[in-house]
């Protein structure tokens, strides 16, 4: 196995190279995500400098590329848009980022990293698809040069309807820039790498394909300059303010903080879940354990700093993190170098960037966002579990038709309900010995031998309140078919936990069986479960025997008192 | 084993005897529970006639004694008291009963009997204790002759404080009747049976002890008559209206129905859970399977009829059902006979009952309610699970200090959170062979043998969204100690279900292991789990082997393709 941690001295060179590549991608992304969130483009640059340094100082993953991200920008838009009349969006975005940072810090202190588990795979995948569609739809007016805008589909359609009545719904020059660059980007993504590979090496071909967006952006800038596009009504990025990041405390307004709190909580959850998933996956490939609490702390620091430096909520970006890892980043300092390169480039490139049509930025968002969405997840889910597939579809639909917050909230509640529903109706198997082994399996699925007088059952669930009441009835129904039973032996391997309700059910089962002259025995009770039973002094009421293996239990060999 | 179903011809005589005994208990209880709910005493009688006949026609259990019950009366009080200014309590009680009936009928049609599982043992036991204290406190003013009243502790204390400022907080003559009968009932419950057993047979002694409340009531009636108690300010039951049950549709007022709906939903849940628990327990002892949906239908019919016949919400009473079973009831018709005897007795005994001081009825409630509460449950829970014990205490406290509805709501939410929390942090055991057997157990708890190159793990939880993300990390950490591993074998007996998130985690684990040159195999995958995996065509991506038993997996014998 190759050593995953070669000596440190070469890390600087590799980090610098990765940072250079990532920062090239980050410049247009940061501008575009700020526009997506309904903020001035420079906010995206502000969010891409100091927050990256903060993550490098505190964060857990060596490859996680922090900064503005597409889904977070969409959620930021939906959070701050309802307050548009009362407070400047940039002010609201700063408060939101600071609140996200505070909540992540609180989660790190209270060890709440397990809360990430609330977002199940179908919810995340449905959300991914729904958010991609929402983002693409939100960029459609910009692509076509329409002034329409809206937080979700209904608002967008209403705004578009109003705009269409006031004047032309499409601005032809803008649409030419937008749809032209969209077509080029789609073609490049589909065919460029294969085409380039005919003449170039595989690595070079990949590099060419990856730099397509840069070429499109450079060409658009040149064309806009040559045609004096702004004088034809094409909106351009415009002269960015000189990059000295405005520092300051977020506005201390209790009403504003309270209004943004629910959105901040969901943003914090999504930020952590999406960043941690990428960091952990890339980490496992590199033989690196990413610590959840430290990742929380790193993301908390980034967002707090974003809130202090006129930024917007930030998190790990899937596309940039993967690029970072591919490009050979070795330590978290690659992120800090990325910030430095971005700052230098923003200063040097301010003049040409001013000519970049905003519609081209919209095109550069739409293509990768639609490509990264997990479109195939639904078909896969449908084959495995209809209910989870429907949940996925519902979450996607709510994300598109309403808001990300509602979609995630409904998704979490339904995930829990589905889990409870399964746990509430356990599968109960009558088990028999697989001939020639000491192994016991379901008599309905395998050829097995039964031992007369002994009823062997395996209840395939932990004994918890959601199912405990069923236990005596399940056993009693099995007994109807075996009236000569003298012992019931429960194989306890599937029982991972017994809660108070389960303990009561076990005691009820024992007394019901005893009234019929039948002894209740247990086999293969797991260590932690047995510890709990002993702590509760179950020997006071449990009168059966315990066996290390089910085979011994059926033969009644080496039984122990409780 | 004795035949649990002896021939039918003798059932009538036994049912009649049980009915006679139960109806004697039911008369004072029905009056007292109506007063507890803040209703005129005759409402209790109305709720004890036709609803019992409805249950006999539709219900599931042969021994469940339906009618007014203490906890349901408390919840009825809390539901209708806030509407006191707007609508007559009797009218509200009728609407409430009808709504409870409709919801139970809906639950029966939609097969929602599994919802009963939402109330875990700690919630039910905490509620039982809290409700007993609440009921006892609510009867305290009646026992002492104070006009104070209140839905919960705060209202009661405030009302008492106001009453104490307006006049004497205790009415001496009433308190003499109340506390006197309370003392006699407590003494009888503690000592009478043992005392009587010195001279009488065991059965006769039990009969004497059980009839103590009747003797106290009869003596109180006689004393109240002899001393002309009402003229000294002692409140008596008074002349009940002739028992012809007023029939009629409940008031059709959308606002009232809507206001009572949340209370009706929780009353329906508590009615079903408490009645079904008693019916099922008594049924199992008699070798009788009580069907949940049919029990829902029976309780629905009783409550609908209670709503049509000027009654109040009804359910199975634990004390009367146990008495019914003890007294030898054989069929559901014992309930109908009980209703008949009650109707006859109410007519014949109307004259003496009119003299019964209400304070004595309060005493007859307080003693059995306090005795039946599960006081010892807390100590038992504390030894087994601190968290569940604290939940129990919290539910009891909210029941006493606030309302039953809040207590149950908070209890359900915390029960689910505790369950998720446990599932989110699975126990992972490194397992080895118990020498001389084909059985594999935790190497930290048993003397076991390991096979070089093979890492055997048992993840003690279903692979669900709440824990799935941890799986690759858990396995990776175990690998650190065994760098020479060539195969990882997961023993799947504790895995009762794999959801979509779990499936994804399994696939991630496999690809992470493959990058390290390690094969992932599974042993003892249960039938339903394997069916699901095959339906999702996992053979497309799973490259390991499947083994019937873990012993075969470790020896790599008889491995199957997925």
TrEMBL record, chains A, B:
Spans traversing the lipid bilayer: 91-110, 117-137, 169-187, 207-228, 256-279, 333-354, 360-378, 390-420
Pfam family for this entry, one: Sulfate_transp
Keywords associated with the record: Membrane, Transmembrane, Transmembrane helix
Membrane topology reported for the UniProt record: Multi-pass membrane protein
Domain STAS: 444-534
Compartments reported by the entry: Membrane
Family matches, as InterPro entries: SLC26A/SulP_dom (IPR011547), SLC26A/SulP_fam (IPR001902), STAS_dom (IPR002645), STAS_dom_sf (IPR036513)
UniProt-recorded name of the protein: SulP family inorganic anion transporter
Source organism phylogeny: Bacteria, Pseudomonadati, Pseudomonadota, Betaproteobacteria, Burkholderiales
